[in-house]
Amino acid sequence: MCGRIAMTLPHDAMVQMFEAVPANDLPPVPDYNVCPTVQISVVTAGGGGRRLRPMRWGFIPDWYKKPNGGPLLISARAETLAEKPAFRAACRARRCLIPVTGFYEWFRDGDAKPLPWFIQRADRAPLVMAGIWQDWERDGERLTTCAIVTTGANLAMARIHHRIPVILTAPDWPLWLGEPGKGAAVLMKSAPEDALSFHRVGTAVNSNKASGAGLLDPIV
């Protein structure tokens, strides 16, 4: 689920919103069709405070011998996050925030062609998803990678898809980042029913080569 995202918030706005120090190599914005395996902007926390930094969207477990050495892990289920060998260490120690404008999901009705929808916050504020991250290194190649944490959909989202990203509001950010200590598990739940808005978009976004703000235009 959530196989494409849109990121349009300027870097300086993200820096201000999260009170984070930016890296020098953040991916360009706006990007209305962000696909897995590309770099996205992610917020982490540590001894030196919060950082806004680029990461490859697609988590790579330690045992992969190459980046494509196994399934592409763009998301991680909240229900099993602390148990899965690929994710359990990151779940404890390497959580992050993934700020986006919104994400795309495809509704599948039997054998009919899947239809894309765009999902964003109802108030049009940036949508901040829970994530996990880790470094991967093999044969001189080093990547910092991340995945989106998902949970069961609320009723509003379930009309399109049975999973939904864990969406965090500003008061939740410190706890998810581990700044006050433990207890982040309580945040892994679906968003309130009125938190998001949904609209159909054109099938141009089906192509990973498509670009431009028109991808977000609603189909009336």
Q: Summary?
A:
The chain is 10% helix and 37% strand. By secondary structure, it is mainly beta. The radius of gyration is 17 Å and the shape is globular.
Structural commentary:
The strands form two sheets. Strands 2, 4, 5, 6, 7, 10, 11 and 12 form an eight-stranded mixed beta sheet that branches. 10% of the residues lie in helices and 37% in strands. A hairpin with a 2-residue loop joins strand 4 and strand 5. The longest helix is centred in the first third of the chain and has 8 residues, at 11-18. It has helices at 11-18, 88-93, 155-158, 173-177; strands at residues 4-7, 21-22, 31-34, 39-46, 49-57, 75-77, 95-100, 102-107, 115-121, 127-138, 141-152, 163-165, 196-200. The two termini are 24 Å apart. The model has no long low-confidence stretch (mean pLDDT 96). The protein is built from four helices and 13 strands. With 220 residues, the chain is mainly β.
Task: Show the helix and strand layout.
Elements: E1 4-7, H1 11-18, E2 21-22, E3 31-34, E4 39-46, E5 49-57, E6 75-77, H2 88-93, E7 95-100, E8 102-107, E9 115-121, E10 127-138, E11 141-152, H3 155-158, E12 163-165, H4 173-177, E13 196-200
Parallel strand pairs: 2-5, 5-11, 6-11
Antiparallel strand pairs: 1-3, 1-8, 4-5, 7-10, 8-9, 9-13, 10-11, 11-12
Number of helices: 4
Number-wise, the strands total 13
Secondary-structure class: mainly beta
Quaternary structure state of the chains depicted: single chain
* Strand and helix order: EHEEEEEHEEEEEHEHE
Shape: globular
Runs with pLDDT <50, length 5+? none
Biggest sheet, open or closed, and with what strands and sense?
8 strands, mixed
Radius of gyration: 17 Å
